[in-house]
Amino acid sequence: MDTQEHRRRLVLLLRMAYSGELAAALAYSGHWRSLKDPEERATVQKIEREELEHRATVGEMLKALDEKPQVWRECMMWMIGRTVSISCFVIGYFLPMYFAGKLEHANVMEYEGAAEHASHLGLERFIPELHHMSATEREHEVFFSSKALNHPLLPLVKAIFRWDPHEVMAIDSSKS
Ligand SMILES: [Fe+2]
Ligand SMILES: [Fe+2]
User: Fold this and answer.
1) How many angstroms separate the alpha carbon of residue 51 from the centre of ligand 1?
2) Ligand 2 center from residue 170 Cα (angstroms)
3) CATH number of the domain at 3-175, out of 3.30.1360.20, 1.10.357.10, 2.40.50.140, 1.20.1260.10?
4) What residues sit around ligand 2, an ion, with C-beta below 5 angstroms?
5) Better-predicted residue by pLDDT, 9 or 150
6) From the CA of 141, which ligand is nearest?
7) What percent of the chain has a predicted confidence (pLDDT) above 70?
8) How far does residue 17's CA lie from ligand 1's centre (Å)?
9) Three-state DSSP class for 1?
10) Model confidence pLDDT, tens digit, residues 47-57
């Protein structure tokens, strides 16, 4: 892959992440409000704040590259975030936890991929922050996965959406 392609892919990942973080923060703002358990509410609220911090960091990276977020992606992600936020109040406990875990899993990979492109481009100052954001997304993934285990709907949802929170927990416990 040449330098131009690494740059193109990095910018794409950053734009996806920038708008994705907006959707995530909006979704979590509804998610924590829909929860009853005070500890869970506080954790999801903290995750919402961390997504907004990520968005600010990614925004700075785009600026440093002299690139801008995509307006259409911002609009689309705003709508998705708001829709999910409202739906958290009607679809029960399990599905928001499951899909949040699945989304966080994708975020972990996204920031790792961005770090790899940054390293090819010699953008050393981006790399620690990208790894740090990936690690935070991993913590989010583990939290949401731990809440989606052992639900009667899990076998069906897992078969359709091909993501298993048990695997996340197994990897996490093998690390600690
Ligand atoms: Fe994030
Ligand atoms: Fe996250």
Assistant:
1) 4
2) 19
3) 1.20.1260.10
4) 104, 137, 140
5) 9
6) 2
7) 99
8) 8
9) coil
10) 999 999 999 99
Q: How many CA atoms lie within 13 A of 58 on its CB side?
A: 31
The domain locations on the chain are 3-175
Distance 28 CA to ligand 2 centre (A): 10
Long-range Cβ pairs for the range 99-104 (8 Å, 24+): 99/161, 100/27, 100/28, 100/31, 100/140, 100/144, 101/141, 101/144, 101/145, 101/147, 101/148, 101/163, 101/165, 101/168, 102/161, 102/163, 103/24, 104/137, 104/138, 104/140, 104/141, 104/144
Distance 171 CA to ligand 2 centre (A): 18
**3-state SS assignment for residue 57:** helix
How far, in whole angstroms, is CA 164 from its chain's centroid?
A: 16
Distance 155 CA to ligand 2 centre (A): 24
Q: Over the stretch 121-159, which tens digit does the pLDDT of each residue have?
A: 999 999 999 999 999 999 999 999 999 998 999 999 999
Looking at residue 171, its pLDDT comes to 85
With beta carbons less than 8 A apart as the criterion, state whether 163 and 102 touch. yes
Please tell me the pTM assigned to this model.
Answer: 0.93
